[in-house]
Design a protein that fits this description.
Number of strands: 2
Structural class: mainly alpha
Order of helices and strands: HEEHHHH
CATH topology: Nucleotidyltransferase, domain 5
CATH class: Alpha Beta
Strand order of the largest sheet: 1-2
Oligomer: single chain
Distance between the termini: 60 Å
Largest sheet: 2 strands, parallel
Number of helices: 5
Helix content: 40-55%
Strand content: 5-15%
CATH superfamily: Ribonuclease H-like superfamily/Ribonuclease H
Length: 125
């Protein structure tokens, strides 16, 4: 957000900037963080719609490059399809480097591990 603010082409910067969330970036204007701002402030609502629309279109275009991930179907949102494709092919170059899918994979592993233990326990005792 700081970079976007600094790259504004307009000579007149905004009088105030509303940020959806808890924290404000280090920018040179009055700013206000608004938790759940996309349900309270019309400017944030509009910006949120524009950002999500642009992101979805970008993901559709990216699906032309990375065909294995079906980005045109789930737009990168953590659906079952998206998670299974990441599990199958690993992360693509545009995937965030956070462990957002890891709990899902660990959960699946734990279920499998539990089943194996259960089978071993029943078969041996």
């Amino acid at each position: 957000m700081k970079r976007a603010y600094e790259e504004l082409k307009s000579e007149k910067k905004p009088d105030i900037t509303y940020i959806d969330g808890l924290y404000t970036p280090d920018i040179d204007c009055r700013k206000e963080a608004v938790v759940k701002g996309d349900s309270k402030i019309h400017a944030i609502m509009a910006a949120s719609i524009l950002a999500k629309t642009a992101r979805d279109l970008w993901m559709i275009r990216y699906s032309w490059i990375e065909k294995n991930y079906s980005f045109e179907k789930h737009k990168g949102y953590p659906t079952k399809l998206h998670r299974s494709l990441v599990e199958q092919f690993g992360h693509s170059p545009i995937h965030r480097k956070v462990l957002s899918v890891l709990p899902y994979i660990i959960c699946r592993f734990c279920k499998l591990f539990y089943k194996v233990l259960h089978i071993l326990f029943i078969n041996h005792y």
